[in-house]
Structure formats: C-alpha cells, structure tokens
UniProtKB/TrEMBL annotation:
Membrane-spanning intervals of the chain: 12-31, 101-119, 165-189, 201-225
Name of this protein: NADPH oxidase 2
Record key words, sorted: Cell membrane, Electron transport, FAD, Flavoprotein, Glycoprotein, Heme, Ion channel, Ion transport, Iron, Membrane, Metal-binding, NADP, Oxidoreductase, Transmembrane, Transmembrane helix, Transport, Voltage-gated channel
Function: Catalytic subunit of the phagocyte NADPH oxidase complex that mediates the transfer of electrons from cytosolic NADPH to O2 to produce the superoxide anion (O2(-)). In the activated complex, electrons are first transferred from NADPH to flavin adenine dinucleotide (FAD) and subsequently transferred via two heme molecules to molecular oxygen, producing superoxide through an outer-sphere reaction.
InterPro entries in the cross-refs: Cyt_b245_heavy_chain (IPR000778), FAD-bd_8 (IPR013112), FAD-bd_FR_type (IPR017927), Fe3_Rdtase_TM_dom (IPR013130), Fe_red_NAD-bd_6 (IPR013121), FNR_nucleotide-bd (IPR039261), RBOH/FRE (IPR050369), Riboflavin_synthase-like_b-brl (IPR017938)
Pfam families: FAD_binding_8, Ferric_reduct, NAD_binding_6
Organism: Lynx pardinus (Iberian lynx)
Catalyzed reactions: NADPH + 2 O2 = 2 superoxide + NADP(+) + H(+)
Every FAD-binding FR-type domain range: 282-389
Length: 562
C-alpha cells in the first residue's frame, strides 16, 4: 500500500456501506423473529421488517449527518490531534465527503422505507377488505369487535377509510410526506451544478434540514405500526394462541384477543445529542460573527479580484485556514467561505475575492463605489483545513488553479517571514509551486509576493528552496509570439519574474518523476486547491510515483474542501 492512500479513502465508502448493511440485516432479523410483531407480520409480511430496518439505519445516519459540518468541533479536534498519527489527522480532512456519503445513505434508506410502507398500506387495505375469515382479516377488525381503541392493529379501521386519508390525517403520514419533500429539495439543490452556478439556492434550501429533523423527531409519535403488548404476550402468546384465533370469542377459551400498542418513538433519541451539539456550534458561530471587524485596506486587483485586509480582536489564524464572510447590506443570511491569504505573522488577516456569482459581484461593486461608506463585513472563523499540515512534510508540492492559489499565498508569506526571522524549526526543505491560470491578469496580484520570495531566497543562498512554475492556459498566438520574442530577457514579459511562464498545462508525469528522483527518501505532501478533474490526475500520480518501499519516496495527496 503506497503513501497516497492516506489522502483519499477508496475503501471507506464500501466500509460505510458494509456497516449499513450489517445494521440493516441485524434490525431486519430482529423484527422478523420478535414474538411481539407476530400478528403484525401476519398482515404485513416481510415488508414490516424492511420498513423498520431501514428506519433504524435512517436514524443512525441522521445522527451523524450534522457532525461533519460542525466546523468548530473539527477545528478543535484538529488542534487536539496535532500530535496524533498522520493517518488519523487526515480523516478530519474528509468531513464533506463523509457528509455526502451519509446523505446518500439517508436517501437510500428513505427510499427503502417509503417503498416498504407502500406495500404495508396495500397489505393493510387488503386485509381490511378481506372476507375470507383468515387471521389477517380477523386481526384487522379487532377494534370493532372489542370496541376498544387500544386493541387495533390495522390503521385502516373501516372499509370507508382510504390509504390517502390515513396518510394525510395521521402524524406519522403527514411528517413522512414533509420529511420526504424536505430531503428531495436538499439533495437536488446540493448538486454540483446548482452549488457552483446558483449558490444562493443551495444555501437557502439546505437550511430546510431544520424541518427535516423536527419532522423526523416526531415522525414515530403516531404509532401506526403496532406490536402486541407485554401483558397480552404473557396472557395469549401467539405461538400458543394464533392457530386458535377462531375461538378467541369463546368464554371458555384460554386464548384472549391480543392487545396492541404503537411502537415507541425512537428517532428523537438518535438526533437529540447531535442536535444539541449543532445548536451550540451555531450559537458560538453567531456570537463570534457579531464581533466587530475593521477593514484596514481595500485593494482592487486585475481580473476583478478584490483584496480585503481586516482586523478583529482575538483573531488567531494558521496557514491555509478559511473564514466565512457575510455582508448584511447584500444578504443577512448568506455566508460564503474564503481562504485566508495573509500569514499568521502579519497583524491583519486578508482574503481575495473573485467575481464568480451574484453575491461576489455585488460585494465587489459595493467596494468599488468611491463616495459610498465601506460596507459592513461580518466574519466567522477561522476554521482549519488540510493546508495546515504543509510544514509537516520535508517536501511540499502546492498546486493552485486560478483563484485557488489563495491558501498558498498564506503559506508562501509565512515562509517568507520564517526565513526573515531565521526559524530553525521549519521542517520543510523544498517547495514546488504550480499555478495554472486562464488569463495573464490573474498573475498580477500574486507576482509581487513571488518576486519578494525570489529576492529573499537569493540573499539567503537558498535558491533551490522554492521552485515555482506558472502556466497560462488561456492564450492566443499574439501572446505566445510576444513571449517568444522576449524569451532571452532576464525577466518574464508577462509577470516580471525570473521564472518564465509556460503555455498550456503541466505534464504531471514528468513533474512527479523529477520530484521523485530529486527526493528519493522523502515524504512529499501534494496540496491542491482546484477542480475535481485536476484532483483525479494528481491523486493518480501520487499513487503511481509513491514507492512500494515505505522507506523511500511517498506522495500524500491533499485537497482543499469547504
């Protein structure tokens, strides 16, 4: 097993599916064998076990769905696990992947639960209409025979009742419909296309989870599915009395009519603890977001990139972390994540915002207005990410695509400060930095930092410490021809840096082969902030170029996820 497996857990989805299958089978068998539900199974058959087993798994996954998005909890665990094994710490970096995986399981078990109950209602209806004198038909008329509301087992208590009537007049039915609608809206609005193009739709719709959890908590109160009471089991056990159901009305019979009770509501027990934890998380985030933020500097860079430098009392950050930003004048409820581009050594914190949607365009427009007051900004965070571990590797490979360079701005700035202050605790020996952009203007705001690092490394005699490559993917023949004519100049014609800009995309096999040969016995951390297609290519290279010998070069892939 090579070094890159710690980055992406290909076996984890299968493991989680296996755990769900185990829980499902265990619950299924328990309901299939339990004497308490003997008479219920006579009416419903195995559909009862399908419905109840899926409900058990649904509760289990609903317990865990909120934990991966408790960002303060994850940041706390990341801090307390600073001395934990590398593989253990890396599990925290997959919080969103785990959140999605649990959501898929909730959808799966919801579908099974709904289908099973459709069969259940069909069985209820048939047994209520049956006139063949079977055990199922006798059980379905118990409430009328006994004139006791507690003795019924079939919710369709008269021939005039319909499935639709029971569904929309019972707590269980109404909450089930509401839960299903809420889940469909959340899942569809969380699709990649909608998240990228219509973030506001995703943001607002995803908060329907409150309706989902409230509905789930009270869903089982109606008690439509019923089982035999303990007292009735002791008095008239089904193994002893089921075959004599025709004699239940006889006064001298040792078997009496069975009595039933609704299953106790269980869902609220599953979601109570994580619900309380999430409420505390939101309270903490709300309190922190209301602390005053002072905007100390506003810079408008080329390619519609806005830089905000801010200060806030008690704000402490690490490299690669991110914050959530809200602008009340644009939207009171929308919070958007942005990677911090400042270094921990600086007396301010900064972010770079590119116009990629309505919210960011409105924000940039608000700051561009010359004679208007500066908009008020609220900040929540910072929160930890995988990039915090960059200095744990001897060799670090940083790959940024477009505005995805922002976490590495923080890292490179911090390195600049560490060298200026002669930090001897710096474990990293070499950094390879790749920046891929579509247009030349995107290089402008970051080139000053790279120029400073170039100068600093030369003065300290550490020219080989930082190896960076800039790639331009959106170019035409005029740009390429102009660069070719000026190739002999000491600095690049596009960026002003000593390193020449390359046209096209990196040849990752060549790059990884070169790094592996240059560092044959090193741990190499590969960090990406960019699209999923690039992540697949880098992850594949990490596996391919990691040595089977654990004492030799190992590549560990890490991707930024918000």
């Amino acid at each position: 097993m090579n070094g890159a497996v710690g980055s992406k857990l290909p076996l984890f989805p299968a493991t989680w599916l296996g755990l769900n299958v185990f829980l499902f089978v265990h619950a299924f068998l328990s309901y299939e064998k339990a004497d308490k539900y003997f008479y219920t199974r006579e009416i419903l058959g195995s559909a009862l076990a399908w419905a109840r087993a899926s409900a058990r798994c649904l509760n289990f996954n609903s317990t865990l769905i909120l934990l991966p998005v408790c960002r303060n909890l994850l940041s706390f665990l990341r801090g307390t696990c600073s001395f934990c094994r590398h593989a253990l710490r890396k599990q925290l970096d997959h919080n969103l992947a785990f959140h999605k995986l649990v959501a898929y399981m909730i959808c799966l078990h919801t579908a099974i639960h709904i289908i099973a109950h459709l069969f259940n209602f069909e069985h209820y209806s048939r047994s209520r209409w049956a006139t063949d004198g079977s055990l199922a038909s006798i059980l379905s008329t118990l409430s009328q025979q006994e004139r006791d509301e507690d003795s019924w087992i079939n919710p369709i208590q008269s021939p005039n009742m319909t499935v639709e009537y029971v569904t929309f007049t019972s707590i269980t039915g109404v909450t089930g419909v509401i839960i299903t609608i809420a889940l469909v809206l959340m899942v569809t609005s969380a699709m990649e296309f909608i998240r990228r193009s219509y973030f506001e739709v995703f943001w607002y719709t995803h908060h329907i989870f409150i309706v989902y959890f409230i509905g789930l908590g009270i869903h089982g109160i109606g008690g439509i599915v019923r089982g035999q009471t303990e007292e009735s089991l002791n008095e008239s056990h089904p193994h002893r009395c089921a075959e004599f159901f025709e004699q239940w009305d006889d006064h001298d019979s040792h078997c009496k009519h069975p009595r039933f009770e609704g299953l106790p509501a269980e869902s609220w027990k599953w979601i109570l603890a994580p619900g309380i934890l999430y409420i505390f998380e939101r309270i903490l985030r709300f309190y922190r977001s209301k602390q005053k933020v002072v905007i100390t500097k506003v810079v408008m860079h080329p390619s519609k990139v806005l830089e905000l430098q801010m200060s806030k009392r008690g704000f402490i950050m690490e490299v690669g972390q991110y914050i959530f930003v809200n602008c009340p004048s644009i939207s009171y409820l929308e919070w958007h994540p942005f990677t911090l581009t400042s270094a921990p050594e600086e007396d301010f914190f900064s972010i770079h915002i590119r116009a990629v949607g309505d919210w960011t365009e409105n924000l940039i427009r608000a700051f561009e207005q010359q004679h208007s007051p500066i908009p008020r900004i609220e900040v929540d965070g910072p929160f930890g990410t995988v990039s915090e571990d960059v200095f744990q590797y001897e060799v670090a490979v940083l790959v940024g695509a477009g505005i995805g360079v922002t976490p590495f701005a923080s890292i490179l700035k911090s390195i600049w400060y560490k060298f200026r202050h002669a930090d001897h605790n710096l474990k990293t020996q070499t950094i390879y930095f790749f920046w891929i952009c579509r247009e030349t203007g995107a290089f402008a705001w970051f080139s000053d930092l790279l120029a400073s690092l170039e100068h600093e490394m030369e003065e300290l005699g550490k020219v080989d410490f930082l190896n960076y490559r800039l790639f331009l993917t959106g170019w035409d023949t005029n740009i390429a021809g102009h660069a070719a004519l000026n190739f002999d100049k000491a600095t690049d014609i596009l960026t002003g840096l000593k390193q020449k800009t390359s046209f096209g995309r990196p040849m990752w096999d060549n790059e990884f082969s070169t790094i592996a040969n240059a560092h044959p016995k090193s741990m190499v951390g590969v960090f990406l902030c960019g699209p999923q297609t690039l992540a697949k290519s880098l992850s594949k290279c990490c596996h391919q170029y990691s040595s089977l010998d654990p004492r030799k070069v190992q590549f560990y892939f890490n991707k930024e996820d918000f």
